[in-house]
Structure formats: C-alpha cells, structure tokens
User: Which sequence fits this backbone?
C-alpha cells in the first residue's frame, strides 16, 4: 500500500545544449530517474502502471532551451528542499539543470492551471530595424488569426477535421528587438495564456517573417498566477 503524500516541492528546472532535442516524455523520464537516484521518497500514483507524481507547468517543446520551467514533485516522506536540490544536481545528466526548490502546499492548484505567461529570448539573423517595424505592426493589429491543425484523431469513415483558426493577438504581450551586431539580433517575446491557450514562440517568429529552423529559442521566464508561491 502506497504511503500517503506528505510534501510537495516546486522545482525550477532548465535544459540547454543537446538536451533541447529531448521530447517531453524523454525529459520527464530523465528527471524522474535523477530524483530516484538521489534517494527522493517519491509518491506514486495508484494502479497497475504506477508512476511518480510529477507535474510540469507546460510540456517541453522540442528544440527549445529553457532556464525557467517548473516541476512539482510529491513525496511520501518529508525532506529538506535544499538537501534534495544538492542530491538531484549530482545525478542530473549534462544539459539538464535544477536551479532551486521550494515547498508549496500539498493541495495547491496544479502548475498548469497557474501558468499565466512566458518570456523568451530568441537569437537569429536579420535586420533589427526591419524586424522592429514588423513587430510594431503585429502589436498594433486588432487581430492576428492563425491556423492550427485540429487535435482530433482520425476515425474510420470520417473526414479529417479542418484546421482551427484562432486569434493570437491577445496572447502577444510584448516584442522587443535588440541588435547584437551586423545581421545578428535578439528578440525578446513576452506572451500571455488566455483562456488556457497560448501562442508558441515559433508562431510569433513565423509572423515576423523568420524561419523557425534558423533561430535559437530560450525560455527566460514562466509567469505563475499571483496566488502561486514564487521563488524569492
């Protein structure tokens, strides 16, 4: 019989280098493995296929670096957060980082429900003045409709669902372009989650006329609702 959960810890995690090419399930497995090797008293779900009670603020997009994702870990025995931080850091593979840990209420809302927005730094090539003009045009637009593939699975005898058209303008908070030298720029993009929807940085990049395959994306911040515990 699984012991009852007694503690919930919130971890700020990051990934860089080759680990940005890990899929979300691969990333979650690597983090769970490091937690187990560190001796963390993980709490597990019930059922035949029990798994550690670990939840993320968002799924990790393939190819993006981050220094500001959050992960909640539920434990069946109490442990000092700083002690666990030191132990986990020693077990993480190269490219994965755990920056800090703090305790949060056991019954706090899920991380995903608390996530309200993100901030990204994006390195690319291009003319800063041209990109700034395109950014201002986006920010001054009343609506920015884009198409997204339907998520519904294909069923026998049914036609594939049509792509969904959504307005991402309310989700784009801020865009700033900084020149780093000839034809080298950094884009700072801030986005909001609106009605449980967010705009992807690659979608904003495409709207600016850039090829997402040629840029380097790094998540700099994940904003949580004001009611959520925050790292000091």
Assistant:
């Amino acid at each position: 019989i699984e012991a009852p959960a007694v503690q919930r810890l919130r971890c700020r995690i990051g990934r860089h280098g080759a680990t940005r090419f890990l899929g979300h399930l691969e990333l979650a497995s690597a983090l769970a493995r490091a937690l187990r090797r560190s001796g963390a008293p993980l709490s597990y779900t019930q059922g035949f296929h029990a798994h550690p009670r670990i939840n993320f603020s968002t799924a990790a997009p393939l190819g993006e670096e981050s220094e500001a994702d959050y992960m909640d870990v539920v434990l069946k025995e109490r442990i000092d957060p700083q002690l666990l931080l030191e132990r986990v850091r020693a077990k993480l593979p190269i490219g994965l980082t755990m920056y800090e840990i703090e305790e949060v209420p056991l019954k706090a809302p899920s991380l995903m429900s608390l996530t309200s927005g993100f901030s990204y730094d994006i390195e690319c090539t291009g003319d800063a003045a041209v990109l700034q003009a395109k950014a201002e045009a986006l920010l001054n637009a009343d609506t920015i409709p884009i198409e997204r593939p339907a998520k519904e699975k294909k069923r026998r005898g049914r036609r594939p669902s049509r792509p969904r058209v959504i307005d991402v303008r309310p989700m784009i908070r801020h865009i700033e372009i900084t020149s780093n030298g000839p034809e080298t720029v950094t884009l700072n993009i801030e986005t909001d989650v609106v009605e449980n929807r967010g705009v992807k940085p690659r979608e904003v990049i495409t709207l600016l006329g850039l090829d997402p395959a040629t840029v380097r994306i790094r998540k700099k911040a994940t904003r949580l609702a004001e009611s959520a515990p925050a790292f000091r």
Notes: The CA atoms of residues 12 and 100 lie 5 Å apart. DSSP finds five helices and ten strands in the chain. Strands lie at 7-15, 54-56, 65-75, 96-104, 115-125, 145-148, 164-167, 172-181, 184-192, 216-224. The mean pLDDT is 91.
